Amino acid sequence: MASILINVTHGPEAPTRAALAFLVGRSATEEGHDVSLFLAGDGVALLRDEVLDSLSGLGTGRLRESYDAIVGAGGRFYLSGMSSAARGIAQADLDDKPAELASPQRLVQLTLEHDRVLTY
User: Beta strand pairing status for 61-62 and 116-119?
Assistant: First the structure.
């Protein structure tokens, strides 16, 4: 199976695009692929519990359902440290999730480590 990195730069301001990124990640895990998501820009807000619980995309489903499926399949989340700091998200806010703050260098490293990269 393949390893897939999904780079998400849209957040709650674009609910369908954001939920679509997670739905594609969920679909990939259901096919047996390893999935990682790198959230940057407004995308970092997607891991806030209130957003996970309330966001639904048009035709793409509820964000929480896709997130839970990705986590259940062993998926990992990386959040841009700079984008997170600018939006008041710290590592302590992520301690209950399979997520970590990451640098631009880590995004480059993840890109090279994965077989395919998708961007939303």
Answer: unpaired
Query: Six-digit token pair at 64?
Result: 């929480």
Rg (CA), the chain: 13
Distance CA 20, CA 115 (A): 20
- CA-CA distances (angstroms) from residue 115 to 35, 104, 111? 10, 19, 8
Structure tokens at 67: 């997130």
User: What CATH number labels 3-119?
Assistant: 3.40.1260.10
Nearest by Cα to 102 from 55, 57, 37? 37
Q: Are 56 and 63 in contact (CB under 8 A)?
A: yes
**H or E element at residue 106:** helix 104-113
For 90-114, write each residue's pLDDT tens digit. Answer: 999 999 999 999 999 999 999 999 9
Q: What is the pTM of this model?
A: 0.96
DSSP-based three-state secondary structure for 85: helix
CA 23/CA 64 separation, integer angstroms: 10
Query: What does residue 39 show for φ and ψ, rounded to 5 degrees?
Result: -100, 130
